[in-house]
Structures are given as structure tokens and as C-alpha cells.
Design a protein that fits this description.
The protein is of the alpha/beta class. It has a single domain (3-180), classed as Hexapeptide repeat proteins (UDP N-Acetylglucosamine Acyltransferase, domain 1), CATH 2.160.10. Helices cover 22% and strands 31% of the residues. It has 4 helices and 20 strands. The protein has a 7-stranded mixed β-sheet with strand order 3-6-9-14-17-19-20. A 5-stranded parallel β-sheet has the order 2-5-8-13-16, with helices on one face. A 5-stranded parallel β-sheet has the order 4-7-10-15-18. A hairpin with a 4-residue loop joins strand 19 and strand 20. The longest helix has 19 residues, at 18-36.
Length: 189
């Protein structure tokens, strides 16, 4: 298998392989171009997001500075607000539902590395998709780790590090994030 095939299969792969690097290099260039757009050119921003993301729904906005590893692995629903300095390490897929807000300085990562020094010296990575439901508010300065699923109608408190799946209809916070309380879903019939 190629390193890219291993990555897509959820196996350990070499993150500085030529094919894998090519994806990141393309993303670096288009993120630079996106971040250089006039900050008030909202239509130009949406156009570029629709061209370079896997999916960009209606009424989507991502503030500068935005960074990602690929772009094509990011799938965002309708009515999305991404505040300043968001990083999405989308080596694997990041799925984001409708009506989601993400606070500034937040990182969503799909990639992890070995705990062993030899694995790190060999530049190995392993990637798992991240899924974020609808009607989610992720506060500023949060970190969402690989393989996590966040349910619908969830609030992730500022500064939280989400290491495990989060059920629907709750607030989580802390390091690592844990459930703080249930919340009402006032939009479901």
C-alpha cells in the first residue's frame, strides 16, 4: 500500500511521504490565498470555501486566519460561523452539521502520532475522522481530538479538550472535557 492508501485506511502512515505532503502543500497555498482576501469580501470568501472544501453549505463564514491540512476533507453544513484563528487538521474527514459556531483559537485535529520515540522518529501518523453534530457551539480555545464524535445540541465550554465522544443535549468542559449538565433542545418538535 502507498502511504496515502494507508492513511485513508486508518493505518499508520508516514506523514512526510511525497503524496501526503502534496495535499498539505496545496492546502498551505490556498489557505494563504483565502487569508489574503479582503476581510469584507464575504462572497469571495464563500466562493473560495466552496471551491476548496469537501462541502461548504449556505451562510458559511470562516474568519481569518484559517489553516487546514487538506481542505477537501472538511464538510460543513448550513449556517456556520468559524471565528478567528481556527485550525482544522483534516488529514481525515471532518464533518460539521448545520447551525454550528466555533470560537476563536480552536483546533480540530484528525491526526495523532505514536507514543514511542521510534514511531515519532519514523514520522508516523494515524488519522481518525471527527464528526460534529448540528446546533453545536464550541467555545474559544478548544481542542477536538481525532476520532471524536460530538452530538447535536452541544456546548463545548471555552478551553475544553475533547478526548471522547459527547452525547446530544449537553454542556461539556474541562481538560479532558466531561459532561457538566444536560441542556434542553428547544428546536425539536
Amino acid at each position: 500500500m502507498t502511504e496515502l492508501e494507508k492513511l485513508k485506511a486508518g493505518l499508520e502512515y508516514c506523514y512526510d511521504d511525497e503524496e501526503v505532503d502534496a495535499l498539505k502543500e496545496k492546502a498551505i497555498i490556498w489557505c494563504r490565498d483565502y487569508n489574503a482576501l479582503d476581510p469584507l469580501d464575504f462572497e469571495g470568501q464563500r466562493k473560495m470555501l466552496r471551491e476548496h472544501l469537501g462541502k461548504a453549505g449556505d451562510k458559511i463564514w470562516i474568519a481569518k486566519t484559517f489553516n487546514c491540512d487538506n481542505g477537501k476533507n472538511i464538510y460543513i453544513g448550513d449556517n456556520f460561523t468559524g471565528n478567528y484563528n481556527i485550525t482544522m487538521l483534516d488529514i481525515r474527514e471532518i464533518y460539521i452539521g448545520d447551525n454550528v459556531m466555533i470560537g476563536p483559537n480552536t483546533m480540530i485535529t484528525t491526526v495523532n502520532h505514536p507514543l514511542t520515540p521510534m514511531g515519532r522518529r519514523r514520522h508516523l501518523g494515524i488519522a481518525k475522522p471527527v464528526t460534529i453534530g448540528s446546533d453545536v457551539w464550541i467555545g474559544g480555545g478548544c481542542v477536538i481530538l481525532p476520532g471524536v464524535t460530538i452530538g447535536n445540541n452541544v456546548v463545548v465550554a471555552a478551553g475544553a479538550v475533547v478526548t471522547k465522544d459527547v452525547p446530544d443535549n449537553c454542556v461539556v468542559g474541562g481538560v479532558p472535557a466531561r459532561k457538566i449538565k444536560d441542556i434542553e433542545n428547544d428546536v425539536e418538535p
